[in-house]
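Write out the 3D structure for:
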Amino acid sequence: MVFSLIETVIILAIGSGAGVMVGIMGGSGVMVVVPMLTLLLSFPVHTAIGTSLLIDVVATVVTATIYHRHQNVYIRPGLWIALGSVGGALAGSRVADMIPAVGMSGLFALMLIPTGVYLWLKGLGRPGLAAAGGEIDSPRLPVQTRRQQFTALGLGVFVGMMCGLFGAGGGGMILLILIFVLRYPVHLAVGTSSFIMMVTAASGTAGYIIHSNIDIQAALIASVPTVLAAGIGAGIANRVSERTLGRIIGVVLAALGVAMIATRVVAGG
């Protein structure tokens, strides 16, 4: 498929947005990529999700590398999440191929709204450890128990399923698991979340490639600004408060979900 100049600019803008989101949150750019590809470029939902996963792989490689340089990646306890997410992502991508595109679009839109609301509430309720200009007090590492390990493994399977089914790399969910289940400090959680997402998104991408549901050209175009934006976003993450960030992203995600549902209703789908 050959993209026009306008379409190429749109794809570049989508890649930039995805990179910033992943860099700041250690989250998934799918929340930006899938709605924009379907709404603005009329991508089939399956293809949009597969393409978003490939873009996520690029973004998380950059983000995880930057956080690793700042010694904010601690994968050993989080490896349980990564292990569970691999199988879950492959299974989810297989199930997704059996769901009609209309159903996928509706499910994804409905998922965006509560996710946005939750991020808003999380931003209000948790000020975060790194306020503007702040730093983590010490490089202390989290302590894990056997129960935490198996809980993380099970939650990792769930996160992987969400990745494969909806294209959601699960960055937000992974971040919560690291902070509240494995007791990671916030910055360490964001960096490690990016690393785990890299594994999860790569697994989901493999499943979508098998079913030919990825637009490689679009992913490559979007990945160019994603590399730069993810780096900038990772730098901003150390200066912007978690409260403000949660509010902004929450509003954006909820708005995208409403927009997708409204579009389906207007189109009679």
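The chain has one domain: 5-131+143-267.
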